[in-house]
Design brief:
The chain is mainly beta. It is built from 1 helix and 7 strands; from the N terminus they run ββββαβββ.
Length: 111
């Protein structure tokens, strides 16, 4: 799947709780399924867009017109001119392309 566009914010997670903003059901993604969830937020252009985005974030609605959710095993993001990245709060500097993959079964959590 390929998605092109301008986005205000993007986050990637291995589970359905993405940046505390969106909650996806376990049927769509889980810790052990070897997949990533990427959430992309479109930049609001109108007052109606701002209202829709605020409603979606308040409700954790992943099916809003202002939010795009992509799920897969590999994610490649390209940004001509580069963009800042952060991994668990550690800055990466300016990068033009980032590839994120998972390793199914690499870590087993017990609780």
């Amino acid at each position: 799947m390929k998605e092109e566009g301008e986005f205000l914010f993007g986050a990637v997670s291995v589970n359905g709780n993405i940046a505390g903003l969106i909650s996806l059901p376990e049927e769509r993604i889980g810790y052990a399924d070897g997949r990533l969830a990427a959430v992309l937020i479109k930049p609001p252009k109108t007052v109606a867009d701002w209202d829709e985005l605020a409603r979606a974030l308040r409700c954790g609605d992943p099916d809003s017109a202002m939010i795009k959710v992509l799920i897969g095993e590999t994610l490649t993001v390209s940004a001509p001119g580069g963009m800042e990245w952060s991994l668990d709060g550690e800055g990466s500097g300016l990068l033009e392309q980032v590839q994120i993959t998972t390793k199914r079964g690499f870590l087993t959590l017990q609780g």
